[in-house]
TrEMBL record:
This is AraC-type DNA-binding protein. The lineage of its organism: Bacteria, Pseudomonadati, Bacteroidota, Flavobacteriia, Flavobacteriales. Signal peptide: none annotated. Keywords: DNA-binding, Transcription, Transcription regulation. It comes from Halpernia frigidisoli. One of its GO terms (molecular function) is DNA-binding transcription factor activity. InterPro entries: AraC_XylS_family_regulators (IPR050204), ExsA-like_N (IPR054015), Homeodomain-like_sf (IPR009057), HTH-like (IPR037923), HTH_AraC (IPR018060). It comes from the Bacteria. Residues 165-263 form the HTH araC/xylS-type domain.
Amino acid sequence: MQTTAIQSCHLGPEISPEQFIPEHFFLYILQGSMKAFDGKNNYSMKPGDYCIARKNHLMRYTKLKDENNSFQKIVITLDEIFLKNYLEKHPISVGVFDNENSFLFVEENVLIKSFIQSLKPYYSGNEQIDQTFADVKREELLLILLKNNPILADAFFNFGIPEKINLEEFMNLNFRFNISLERFVFLTGRSLSSFKRDFQKIFGTNPGIWLKKKRLDEAYFQISNQHEKPGNIYLEVGFEDFSHFSFAFKKEFGLAPTQLAANNLGNR
């Protein structure tokens, strides 16, 4: 018989469900597993894994339930306000963090294992954690993380905005992520006006038109050449819902994605 999922534990501000990480957060998998993709690298997490998802990175998640139909996690947000308050109490010299990975895996040790165990009343019972105690637990976690790996300070306490980067390379790598134009602008280190100006110069069109065409071309390729099912790929290529994807696809190519898939199946 399938069991009912227990409640997960979340300390700190809620994380936006969009494919952009606005604040650092610590993640521990209790039950089930998770796969993630950041445009370059694939990451896999299983029960017992600890990791840090990094602020200002793009990420697409797939949560996988276990044999008991359960996916459970502990999420602890290390937001900028909290980190700045911590830095006032515990001054630390900060350098450059030389690692571009969106997920940073944390090795288990006695301290972090005991910390997770201390949260058990909140993820396996009915206890509610108040804000003051939640902040104490977040500070405890941060102390443990920095004690075990001091170089993490260079990632946590860098409050600067992204530097200006190669726009063409970034957009071709990340067009599949369903984020707002403002997020693309921010991540490429530009103002909105300079982003649009540079985009027009590089691609010869505006961002909205380019993104839709790029995503539809990718969908066509996956359906036609890789024989993917339309219902399996519309989210992956950056569309929010299937009906919008199907309408745009038919307008662009003259047939619905399901028709293209059926035609390919008939020709095989």
